[in-house]
Each structure stands twice: as structure tokens, then as C-alpha cells.
Design goal:
- By secondary structure, this protein is mainly alpha-helical.
- Among the domains are: 106-170, Dna Ligase, domain 1; 175-237, no CATH class; 250-416, no CATH class.
- It contains 14 helices and six strands.
- The strands form three sheets. The chain has a two-stranded antiparallel sheet. A two-stranded antiparallel ribbon has the order 3-4. It has a two-stranded antiparallel sheet with strand order 5-6.
- Helix 9 packs across helix 10 and helix 10 (276-289) crosses helix 13 (344-351).
- The termini are far apart.
Length: 434
């Protein structure tokens, strides 16, 4: 096609292309090709209703696999067990630490060899704990079931299971005690132990005098008498070794056994701690001079031995002249063995006596003794003592009678020695001894 001027229009499309492009079509023609959605009007009530949730996605085929199901089951079981265990631990620990049901102080005796379960049941019977299961589990969890100790335990009201377990493991059981005074013979000590209602068993052999250390000994219920005797022997042997190693030089004592023998005499002569070194010095000075010891307790021991003298027996001049291996009025030097069990203070006094020249002592009426270095001074002290004795006898005749023996030893007290003169009396008739 050509214009009027006969020129050709080069902008014509090629013959193989459409005459009109879709982009050149009006918008109405594009919309006409898509289906239109029909709009349904909603009522106000329908507009307020929530729309339905879309359906869940289809379950994965992997989640339905048997291995996955089993793994999920075990994982859930583990979680439940952990939660249950945590809850049980929390509440068990709370019960274990809180105050218990005990309302009054109670003593429980745990027998030797008792196991954890029997101990737990015993504690429940005495209302010390209210849950043997929690108590036993706690002991096993702490690995303490084999460390519970036998003994007698005293539990206070409202004691917790934790405190009960601590007491059983530490062995803080009730301690009983027995006091054995210095100066007792071994037979007297055995008699006292046999009278104790808490101790058990028999003593196989009475130890020799001087082999036991007097003291106050503590023990738990169930301890045997022989165990206590063995302990006293060990304590005495250890103390003697220590004292002997620290003795003063130049003593007229050759062996530890001789030290115990002289200490036993000192122990029987005075009960006052401040006098022991001085009494020991008198005997040491006599041994150095070759003088006889002339000790009344040795005479009594020679007659009655470890049984002690009867309460109604009195030391007389005839007794002083009775020959025995222990009568230091008649023998030279020390007796063959101790006459009692001395305490450590008496051992120390003999090992380190006072530095004096005194050779005599006599009771002074006050529970102590008057010491002297010469016979003349000693005779004056004896005369003073006899006057005191006469006044005491007169007062006793005017008042009800009283015991004249020492209840601890069965012997007369130090100021109740005889005032009869021994065979080697001083010229004026007074004894030249204690």
C-alpha cells in the first residue's frame, strides 16, 4: 500500500507476523480470558464466625517406621523415669533432713554384727525414724551401710534421719564410766568391775598388784570387763615407761618394778597430792641410809594380801612383829612386790622426789603428816599426834560411832595408824616411823 504521493511505507510488519500484538489489546480483552469468581455476600453473623482451619499436612511415612516408634517410646520412658527419679530424690531428701517423729529422749542398743535392714527396723520400732526405706536407701546411696557401728545410742526428740545416720557412722554412742581410785589392790579393782551392771563377761585372771593404772575409764554398753583390765594394763605399762625414762639420777632404785613397789607404798601412806613427793623422799632417804622403811601398809598387806584387812581389824604391836616377806619393820629394803596399784602421780613422786633430809613423818590430825629430819623432832610430833588421838577417842565416846575405814580401800585412813610402839621404838616409847 502506498501513500498518495506514491511512496512506499517501510513500517509495515512483515507478512509472517500477526497484525495486532496481544499487548496492544485493551485490558478488557485480557480479563475476558480468565474466569471470574463469584462473590457471595455474607450476613453479619457469618462474618463473625471464624474460618475453618486448614487440614493438617499428611503424616510422613518415616514417622510411621517401627524403629522410630520404638525409639520414641524408649525416649519418652527415659524422660518419665528421670522425672520420677528427680521427684523421688527431692521428696526423699526432704524427708531425710526434716525432724523425725521421736518425742522423747530414747536409748537404742545396736548389737554387733547387725545389718542395715535390721538396724532400720529397730530404729522404727523405737520411733526414732518413720521410714526405714528412705533411711536404708540413703545409707546405701552414700555407701555407708558397712560403716554403721554397734553401741548404745541416745537420740534426742525430733532427731532427723541424717543425724541418726551420722551418729551411727561416727560411733557417737553413749559412754559409761567407772572410777577406780589409786591405792586399790588388783583384787579390789576386779571386784568393782564385777559389780558394774553395764560391763559384760568375766575376768579370766586377777593381774598382779601394781600392773593396773587406776583412773576413770569410759566404755560403751557391751564392753567386757576383761577389755577394761587389758586397757588398764596397757596404760600402766606406757606410763611406767615414760616415768622411768625421766627419773632423777642417783636413786636407790634399780628397776621399773622397784619404782612401782615404792610408789605403791607412797600411795597407801598418803592421799594428798602435795605430800607424795615428800613422802617418797623420806623412803628414798631411808633406803640410802640403809634404814628400814617401817611402813604400816606393808604390814597389813603381808597379813591379808590383796583382799585387804577386815573393817574391824586394828593394827597392833603384835602385828608389827609378825614376820612376813612384806613387813618392812622386819625386812631390809623394799618388799618383794607392790602392795597396791599406784597412780601416775605416785610414780612421778618416786621418780622425782623432793630434795629433803627428812627421815620421819607422822599423822598431824588434819589429814596430812608432820615431817622431821631428826628423831627428837619426830618424837615431839608423835606425842602431839597421841594427844590428838586421845581427844578424838574422847569425842568419839560421847558421840555415835562412825566408820573408821576408808571406803575406797578398806584400810584405815592415814591418821588412824596405831600409836603402839614397835620393837625398835625411840627411847621415850614413841615409834621412830610414820
Amino acid at each position: 500500500m502506498s501513500d498518495t504521493d506514491g511512496s512506499t511505507d517501510d513500517r509495515r510488519p512483515p507478512p509472517d507476523m500477526p497484525a495486532v500484538s496481544p499487548l496492544d489489546l485493551p485490558a478488557e480483552s485480557t480479563e475476558a480470558q480468565q474466569p471470574r469468581r463469584r462473590i457471595s455476600p455474607k450476613s453479619p453473623r457469618q462474618a463473625l464466625q471464624p474460618e475453618a482451619a486448614p487440614p493438617p499436612p499428611p503424616r510422613s511415612q518415616k514417622a510411621r517406621h517401627p524403629l522410630v516408634v520404638v525409639a520414641n517410646f524408649f525416649l519418652m520412658s527415659v524422660v518419665l523415669v528421670v522425672l520420677a527419679g528427680g521427684a523421688a530424690y527431692y521428696f526423699g531428701t526432704k524427708r531425710f533432713n526434716e525432724p523425725g517423729p521421736l518425742t522423747e529422749t530414747t536409748s537404742v542398743l545396736v548389737a554387733p554384727g547387725a545389718d542395715l535392714d535390721s538396724i532400720s527396723a529397730q530404729l522404727q520400732r523405737h520411733d526414732v525414724i518413720d521410714s526405714p526405706l528412705i533411711f536404708s536407701m540413703a545409707a546405701r546411696f552414700k555407701k555407708l551401710e558397712s560403716k554403721l557401728q554397734a553401741g548404745e545410742y541416745l537420740f534426742q526428740p525430733a532427731v532427723s534421719m541424717r543425724q541418726v545416720l551420722d551418729d551411727l557412722v561416727s560411733g557417737r554412742s553413749v559412754l559409761h564410766s567407772v572410777t577406780l581410785p589409786e591405792g586399790l589392790t588388783s583384787q579390789a579393782i576386779v571386784d568393782r568391775l564385777n559389780e558394774d551392771p553395764v560391763l559384760t563377761g568375766d575376768i579370766t585372771t586377777v593381774p598382779p598388784d601394781g600392773a593396773l593404772m587406776p583412773d576413770t575409764y569410759k566404755f560403751t554398753r557391751g564392753a567386757t570387763r576383761q577389755q577394761l583390765i587389758d586397757q588398764m594394763e596397757r596404760v600402766q605399762a606406757r606410763a611406767l615407761q615414760e616415768v622411768w625414762s625421766r627419773r632423777a639420777p642417783g636413786l636407790p632404785i634399780n628397776t621399773p618394778e622397784e619404782l612401782v613397789t615404792l610408789a605403791s607404798i607412797v600411795e597407801k601412806e598418803t592421799g594428798r597430792a602435795d605430800e607424795r613427793p615428800r613422802v617418797a623422799a623420806v623412803f628414798i632417804n631411808r633406803l640410802r641410809k640403809g634404814m628400814r622403811l617401817q611402813s604400816d601398809p606393808t604390814v597389813i598387806y603381808g597379813i591379808f594380801g590383796g583382799a585387804g584387812r577386815p573393817p574391824d581389824w586394828a593394827l597392833t604391836n603384835a602385828a608389827l612383829e609378825k614376820m612376813t616377806p612384806f613387813n618392812t619393820y622386819l625386812i631390809d629394803g623394799l618388799p618383794p612386790s607392790p602392795i597396791a596399784n599406784p597412780g601416775r602421780a605416785a610414780l612421778e613422786a618416786v621418780a622425782n622426789p623432793s630434795r629433803t633430809n627428812e627421815l620421819y613423818f607422822v599423822a598431824d590430825g588434819t589429814g596430812g603428816h608432820a615431817f622431821s629430819s631428826t628423831l627428837e623432832e619426830h618424837n615431839r610430833n608423835v606425842a602431839r599426834w597421841r594427844q590428838i588421838r586421845a581427844e578424838q577417842a574422847k569425842a568419839a565416846a560421847e558421840s555415835p560411832p562412825s566408820a573408821a575405814t576408808d571406803p575406797a580401800t578398806g584400810d584405815a585412813p592415814a591418821d588412824a595408824a596405831t600409836d603402839e610402839a614397835p620393837a625398835d621404838a625411840a627411847p621415850d616409847g614413841s615409834a621412830d616411823t610414820n
